[in-house]
Write a structure and sequence with these properties.
Elements (H helix, E strand, L loop, with lengths): L9 E7 L6 H15 L3 E8 L5 H8 L6 E6 L5 H11 L4 E5 L10 H4 L9 E6 L6 H18 L10 E5 L15 H11 L4 E6 L14 H19 L1 H9 L3 H5 L3
Length: 256
Amino acid sequence: MSSRRNPCSLTIFFPCYNDAGTIGTLVVAATLVAGEFTDDYEILVVDDGSTDRSVELLQQLQKDYARLRLVCHPTNQGYGAALRTGFAQATKDLIFYTDGDGQYDVLELRALLPLLQEGVDVVNGYKIVRSDPWYRVAIGWTYLQLMRRLFQFQVRDVDCDFRLIRRRVFERITLHHPSGVICLELIKKLERAGCRFAEVPVHHYHRLHGRSQFFNLRHLVVTGVDLLKLWWELNVRPHARSARSTPHPWAVSHRV
């Protein structure tokens, strides 16, 4: 990509939790693709209280990669909290993020960047094929169908964390949720804010290191509760607030 003179700047960031086996490779790949796009870029890793060697490895990488910034949560606060920190800490015009577990290829950002044309606010990836055990594929498909019915979002794959976003859109929305429910919150609030989307297929790879934090009883319960809270926040609370703020017709008609 002959875009060294591209006027847009770029933040690439990764939420990281016990991803020592993959995060170094992602930083190297991110540096390569960002440098193809612009001279004005940063690589940001938000470590969410890792207990493995992730932080130590990243600190070593900072000696060789001057554009790498590391932000650490003292304790594990959740995937949503890591994303919120990343969005808040990003300083460039465009923000790209994907997970630190290596299930997406950062080099495929090359396919997203040309689609962020004038009038497009978000380029959202969608998985060509989900490379997970069959039961996770089945659960993921069921989850996606249920969430589509509950939240009526328009994007093809709300659960694909491979996104390129204009930083200015965060002036229009505020994110609250600390868990993985933030993906739904992000997409739905962006849609309601009038943001325009482009979509592109991306590959999804088998996890080679670590284990998913989602598929255990505690996280499933927390996610279920957070989904109910988000649905209430997006669909019930605005109507209740509107009803409270609308004067009673009698009061209007009899106002002097």
